[in-house]
Structure formats: C-alpha cells, structure tokens
Amino acid sequence: VHGEINIHGTTANGWDFVRDLFKENFAQERDLGGSVAIYYQGRLVVDRYGGWFDQTRTKPYDNDTLQLVFSTTKGLVAVAAALCVQRGLLNYSELVTKYWPEYGQHGKENTTVADILSHRAGLPIDASPFERYLNWTAMIHTLEQQEPIWLPGTAHGYHALTYGWLAGELIRRVDPMRRSVGQFIRDEIATPIQIEFYIGLPSDQEYRVSPLDGLSSGNMTSNDSTTVSDNEFNDWRTHQAEIPAANGISNARSVARLYASLIGDVEDNKYKRILNEEILKQAIKSNTPQNEIDLVLNMSTRFGMGFRLMDESFPSLGPGVFGHNGFGGSIGFAAPTKMYNYWAQQQQQAMADYSRASRAPRVVVINERDPIKSAQKLVAWLDTHYPNHKIIQMARIKQNQRIYNRVVFQTAQGQRNMVVFDVNALYLNNMGTATEMFSNGTMVRISPGTGSTPTRMQVLY
C-alpha cells in the first residue's frame, strides 16, 4: 500500500461495516480510487470516498471527484423515458414510428418503444468509427438505415451503445422543447433533486473527472498481435458528447439519490419522488420471457424498460431490485422492499479478474478457418498455457465475415479469465472492422492489420 489509506466521508450508526469493507478494498489494493453511497428510507447513511485521483497518487479521490460510469448511465436514461411516460408524452406499448417516423424502414417498422428500452430492437451492434459516436445526428441516421439482426420483439440482446441513441432520440422527439437527452436530464431530473449526473459534461467540469486506468495498459500480446489501443473514453471530447448508453459522468451520492428518489421522497421530504408508483411498476416490470438467453451476452439477463432486473444478483434484498451496472466497476440500484439505494464506483487499476471487466480480453491468433482444426488448436493452446483449466463458456461467432471463438474459463488457481481466438487472421486484410460485446460487459472493436501492422483491438465500453 502506498502510504496511509485516505478514506473520508460519513457513515451513520449501524453502517460501519460498509466503511470497513470499503477501506479493505484499498488495503488490499483492489482499487485505486472510488466512492460509495447508500440511502436508506430516504436518508443518506453512507457517503464514503477515498484513494487516489489517478496513478500519480499525488491527488486524492475526494468528494469533488467525478467519474465516468459507463452503462450505469442506462439507468438514468430509463428514468428520463419513464418521466416522459408519466407526463403522457410517450407510451411503452406504442410503435416507435409514432414518435420517430424515419425509424420505420429496413424491417424496423413494427418496433415498439418497449422493444428499444428492453434491448429487443435487434440493433445491438454498430461498427461505426469512434469519431461518429460523438456526432448525434450521424448516429441517428446510421441507426435509421440499419437492418435488425433479429425480428424486433422476438428476442433480446444487450444494446451496449445503441440503446442510448435509440432511447435518447425517442426522448428528444417527444420533448415539446426538443432538448437533447442530456439537457432534458439536467433540467427535469438532475436540477430538481440537486444531483450531478452529466450526459454531455460542461467543459468547466473536466478537471474534476478521474481518468480511467487499466483499460489500455495491459501487455496483451500474442503471436506478435497487439490488441489494445489508447482509450477514447478519457478524451474530453467524449466527455462533452452525448453517448447516453455509456458516457455518463457522476459521483456516488448523486446516483444513490437518483435511485432513492424513484421509490420515495428523500432528505426529510426536501426532494420529491420523481416517478409515481404506477409508472415505476411499469418501468421495472420484466419484458424478458422467462429463461430467454441474451443473444449478445450469451447468458440469461432480464430487462424492464431500460433497467436491469437484479433479484438474482441480490436475493437478500427482497424482490423488485432494479438498476444498472457499468464497465469499470460502477453500479447503481434500488431495493424497494428494503427502501435501500446503493451506488459504488471504482477508478480501478488493471486487473486480471474479468468478472470485474477491467480490461479487454486477450486475443490469440489461430490461422485456421476449418472449425474442427481451429477447435483442436484452441484446446491445445489452453492446455499449454493454463493447465487444469475449467471452461465456463465457449461460443463460436461469425460476424461481419469474421469468425472467432470466445472462451471464458477458470484457471487452476480459481481465477476467471477470457481469451478470444481469432480463427481467420490470414483474411483480415480484406475485411472491414468488426465490433463485439463480450460476456463480461466489455465491448471492443477489432480492426484488420495490414502487412506488418498487427490486428488492433480497441476497448469501446
């Protein structure tokens, strides 16, 4: 540990165990900097922060620090959509084309608002250049022209980035003032309950944002194939853009207060409840059939109207737990039966534990297109590098004319790991960019190499 553990903030009586657990993260060097906040029965009972602002370890992570929270932003967008429903501007059951006529083309004509919010729209992947993600109009046009991967409403798959533009454009279209989703949230949600949760960071707040660490620092190379580029999400241009699925910037007490205000008044009725009981019930009702597998994550997930439904993750908190987690360690949720709201964010160091989704998977090149031979080589590589491993999940995927195997496994030491086996590297030079969401929540863009230039793997989410 580098010097004294600098943990600060407040903890109400009976909640000291949270402070102790939080401090232990830093004692064990699991986190570089972070914060945690809990509301209970409308009152802030935990507000802790500590560690370091960045790797220089010269500036503390304090109560003024802001943090990029990636997909925890999706919960805020779900609140904005529900507020539009509450005001009669939007209806979950209506066709998207009622509000956004240009969307109704290329097989998307019968998509409903609920399909978009519950990841059933069939547009989970977009391989646009990252610069286009900073241009709202360009991304909306791109999505209007896309064909769905599956018939909308018939299946679900995590829309890691596209969820934000799809839901955000609906909010913008139904808003009488035609504000951007970021401005709508500032005016209608953040200001009334006095929180900081930005989609589109004001330039004068940039200095407060703790930079992400560990997304591009790992030495993840194999067979002369470099895998990771610099991380665009530390760029001020990304912070000021509106990418509503993934670039929200906030702090612990703000996200905790947001969720507290969904289930009741907070701070002795100083801040009034945002959603009424009927609208909240609609927003957190599952729109995912029982045991339906997420076609992108290859695992079971359940979604309401933008919220992840988390009963299975937190069984001790009673039924109805909802919220959203994000890449890098952030999570925000509410447990209505306990009147309990929680938010945590870690500005963490690079880790090998991919259940924390702290960096992109390693890429191993296998120059073999035959599925049987490539599988044999895959197993041989794992046996050589990870003796006595246990495979947890394996998937062979063909996307954008690319074929690769994704393997999640447990090492003999009990560590969870992931490797992507690129089984057509010889053909990359003639193919376009592919984008893929991995089962740990990491989205990457894979770009072809040319000549001596290696394949490039770039963390997006």
TrEMBL record:
Taken from the record, one Pfam family name reads Beta-lactamase
Q: Which SUPFAM superfamilies match?
A: beta-lactamase/transpeptidase-like
Superkingdom as given in the UniProt entry: Eukaryota
Q: Which InterPro entries match?
A: Beta-lactam-related, Beta-lactam/transpept-like, Beta-lactamase/esterase
Describe the location of the Beta-lactamase-related domain by residue ranges.
20-338
PANTHER family, sorted: BETA-LACTAMASE-RELATED, BETA-LACTAMASE-RELATED DOMAIN-CONTAINING PROTEIN
Can you name this protein? Beta-lactamase-related domain-containing protein
